[in-house]
Design a protein that fits this description.
Layout: E1 8-11, E2 34-43, E3 46-54, H1 57-141, H2 147-175, E4 184-187, H3 188-205, E5 209-215, E6 221-224, H4 226-242, E7 248-256, E8 259-266, H5 273-276, H6 296-306, E9 310-315, E10 321-328, E11 330-331, E12 345-348, E13 354-358, H7 362-374, E14 378-382, H8 385-394, E15 399-403, H9 411-422, E16 427-432, E17 450-453, H10 458-469, E18 473-475, H11 483-490, H12 502-517, H13 520-533, H14 538-549, H15 553-560
Parallel strand pairs: 5-7, 13-14, 13-15, 15-16, 16-17
Antiparallel strand pairs: 1-2, 2-3, 4-6, 6-11, 7-8, 8-10, 9-10, 12-18
C-alpha cells in the first residue's frame, strides 16, 4: 500500500459518493461547506480503492466502515484472482518442462537409433556394391563370366540398393506429411499372383515351402492404392522368408463384406514380446536379427495407417509370427479389367520426336541416350546447361529431360530459359535423386511438366514420355510368339490332346478353371491327377510342373489353350 497526498475540495456530499453505492449523510443545514479529501489505495502500482477524509467527524465512522469493507472485499477478490493466475502459470510451466524433457529424451533415442542404423546399414550397402563391383571387374578383364547370370545378380543388387534409398525417402515423406494415396481400379487376383510370383522363388531358394491360401470370394476388381499395398506386402513376405531358416511361409488372403485380410505366417523363431512394439519404430530391429536397415516395418505400419487399415503382429503357438493387415477394399461391381499383355516395347507411332537430354553423369547420360534411341527418338545429349541451350537453339526439341543438379546452370534455370524461348511448344521432364526438390517453395509455379525421382524405373519413364508427347507406343506383335511359347508349342503335336483319354481331358478342363480363379492348391492337385490319369500326358505334365515351379500361370494358361 502507498498513501497519496490528495487534494481537497469543497463539494456537496452527493457529488462523488453516489456512484459507490453508499447513501451519503444529509447536507449540513444552511449550506455549510464540508471539507472532503480522497486517499488513493495502490496495489502493485494499480489504483484499487479510495479512502475518504472529512472534517465532519460525526459522519466519518459510518462512511469509512462501508468504504473499507468494500475495499477489503475488492482486494480479497483481486488476490484470489492473482493467485489463480500464478498457479495456472506454474502448472503450465511444469507441463512445458515435462514436454521438453520428453522431447529431449525422444531426440536422444532417435539419435541413438539412427546411429545404430548407420552402423548396420553399411553392411547392407557394401554387400550389393561388392557384388556389382566384382562382376564389373570380371567383365573388364574379359573372364568367362555368364553375362545373363551376372545381369541378374547386378539387377537384384541394384534393386536392393534402390529399396534402401526409397525406404529413407518414404520415412522423410511420411515425416513431412507429403505421402499421398492414389487409388485406382485393380484386378485383385492378378495383383496377388504378381506378388506371389515375385516371392516364391526366394522361398524355394532357401528350401522353404511357400503357400498361397485364398478364403472366400475375391472381387474381380477392387479400388485401392496398389503400389503402396504391394510395397507393404512384399516387405512382410520378404521379412518372413529372410528370418525363417526352415519350414514354411504362408500368404493368406480373405475377403468378406468389403473387408480384406492379408496374413503372412512363418515358422521362424518368433519375436519376443518386448520387441514387438519397438519393431514398428524407424531404425529399430529385433535383438539378434539378421542385418537390415530397420525401416521396413515402420514404413509398412505408417502406410497401412494412411491406407485406412490396421497392421498387427501376433505370436504363433509353437513359434513363428503372424503379421495381419485388415483394411477396406471397395469392390467395383459388374466390371472386369483386361489382362495386361506381356509385350515388348519396340518404339512409337507417328513422326520421329526430338528429345534434349541434359545429364552431367556420363554413364547415366549414355544409358538414357541408348534407351531413348532404341525407342525411335532423335536424341541430343549434353552434359551441362550452356551446351544444352545451344543444342536447343539449333534443333528445337519436343521434349527436354533435365537433371536438376548440374554444373553451371541448374536444371531449374535451364527449364525457365527453355520455357521462355519455346513456351508450350516444349515439354519438360525433370529428374532428381532428391525427392524434396519438388517441394521447395520457389517451385510453387514450376516451369516443368513432370518430375521423376532417380533411379527411374523404365515403366515410369516410358509412361511419362508417352503422356507428355501424347504418342502411342508400338509393341511386339501379339502374333509373334515368345521363345518360351514357341518351345511349349513345338513340344506338342498339332492335334493337342487328341490322344489323351477322357479322364485326362476332364482334369485339363478343371485345371483351366483353377487357373482362371487362381486356385493354387487346385492347380497342383489337378496336375497330379492328370499325371496319373494318362501316361501319354507325361510331356505336358512335365511342362506344367516347370511353369508351376516358377509360378508362371500365364505360360501355363498359354500351354493349355489348345486343349
Amino acid at each position: 500500500m502507498a498513501r497519496l497526498d490528495p487534494p481537497r475540495w469543497a463539494i456537496t456530499p452527493h457529488d462523488e459518493i453516489e456512484p459507490l453505492g453508499v447513501t451519503p449523510p444529509p447536507a449540513p443545514t444552511g449550506g455549510q461547506l464540508v471539507k472532503l479529501g480522497l486517499i488513493g489505495l495502490l496495489l502493485a502500482g494499480l489504483l484499487v480503492g479510495l479512502h475518504m477524509v472529512t472534517d465532519d467527524q460525526d459522519r466519518l465512522l459510518e462512511t469509512l466502515t462501508v468504504l473499507d469493507l468494500l475495499g477489503l472485499c475488492f482486494l480479497l477478490l483481486l488476490g484470489v484472482r492473482r493467485w489463480r493466475e500464478a498457479a495456472a502459470r506454474s502448472i503450465r510451466a511444469e507441463e512445458a518442462m515435462v514436454e521438453l524433457e520428453t522431447a529431449r529424451q525422444s531426440a536422444i533415442n532417435a539419435n541413438l537409433a539412427k546411429s545404430r542404423y548407420l552402423a548396420s546399414v553399411s553392411h547392407e550397402i557394401r554387400s550389393p556394391l561388392n557384388a556389382i563391383y566384382g562382376y564389373a571387374q570380371l567383365f573388364e578383364r574379359g573372364d568367362g563370366v555368364n553375362a545373363q547370370e551376372a545381369a541378374r545378380v547386378i539387377l537384384r543388387c541394384s534393386e536392393h540398393l534402390t529399396n534402401l534409398v526409397e525406404g529413407l525417402l518414404d520415412i522423410s515423406q511420411l515425416e513431412f506429411g507429403m505421402l499421398r494415396v492414389r487409388t485406382e481400379e485393380v484386378r485383385l487376383g492378378a495383383f496377388i499372383d504378381q506378388i506371389v510370383s515375385m516371392m516364391r522363388p526366394a522361398a524355394h531358394a532357401k528350401g522353404l515351402t511357400f503357400t498361397l491360401e485364398k478364403g472366400g470370394r475375391l472381387p474381380e476388381v477392387a479400388r485401392f492404392d496398389q503400389n503402396r499395398l504391394r510395397q507393404v506386402l512384399i516387405n512382410l513376405l520378404s521379412n518372413a522368408i529372410k528370418f525363417t531358416a526352415q519350414g514354411s511361409v504362408t500368404f493368406k488372403v480373405t475377403y468378406a463384406g468389403q473387408i480384406a485380410t492379408f496374413e503372412v505366417l512363418d515358422t521362424g523363431p518368433g519375436i519376443p514380446a518386448e520387441d514387438q512394439k519397438r519393431l514398428f519404430e524407424p531404425f529399430e530391429r529385433g535383438e539378434g536379427s539378421e542385418p537390415g536397415a530397420g525401416l521396413g516395418l515402420a514404413i509398412s505400419k505408417t502406410l497401412v495407417d494412411i491406407l485406412g487399415g490396421q497392421l498387427d503382429l501376433h505370436a504363433r503357438p509353437g513359434g513363428g509370427s503372424c503379421f495381419r493387415i485388415v483394411m477396406m477394399l471397395s469392390e467395383v461391381a459388374g466390371k472386369t479389367l483386361p489382362s495386361a499383355p506381356m509385350r515388348k516395347l519396340i518404339g512409337h507411332e507417328g513422326r520421329q520426336r526430338r528429345i534434349l537430354l541434359v545429364e552431367d553423369d556420363a554413364d547415366q547420360r549414355h544409358f538414357l541416350e541408348q534407351l531413348l534411341r532404341g525407342l525411335g527418338f532423335h536424341v541430343e545429349a549434353r552434359p551441362d546447361g550452356e551446351q544444352a541451350l545451344i543444342a536447343a537453339r539449333d534443333t528445337p526439341p519436343h521434349l527436354a529431360i533435365l537433371d536438376i543438379s548440374l554444373p553451371g546452370l541448374s536444371g531449374w534455370e535451364i527449364a525457365a530459359k527453355l520455357r521462355a524461348q519455346f513456351g508450350d511448344r516444349i515439354q519438360i521432364l525433370m529428374l532428381s535423386a532428391n525427392s524434396q526438390e519438388l517441394h521447395r517453395p520457389e517451385h510453387d509455379s514450376p516451369e516443368h511438366d513432370r518430375f521423376l525421382v532417380k533411379p527411374v524405373e523404365f515403366e515410369s519413364l516410358v509412361g511419362a514420355i508417352g503422356d507428355l508427347l501424347q504418342i502411342n507406343w508400338r509393341w511386339q506383335s501379339d502374333a509373334t510368339p515368345t521363345d518360351e511359347a514357341a518351345t511349349d508349342r513345338a513340344a506338342l503335336p498339332n492335334s493337342a490332346g487328341a490322344d489323351l483319354n477322357e479322364a485326362a481331358r476332364t482334369h485339363i478342363s478343371r485345371l483351366k478353371e483353377c487357373l482362371r480363379i487362381g486356385h493354387i492348391r487346385g492347380i497342383e492337385n489337378e496336375i497330379k491327377q492328370l499325371e496319373g490319369a494318362d501316361p501319354g500326358a507325361e510331356g505336358l505334365v512335365r511342362q506344367l510342373y516347370d511353369h508351376l515351379d516358377r509360378y508362371d500361370l500365364t505360360a501355363m494358361a498359354r500351354l493349355l489353350q489348345d486343349y
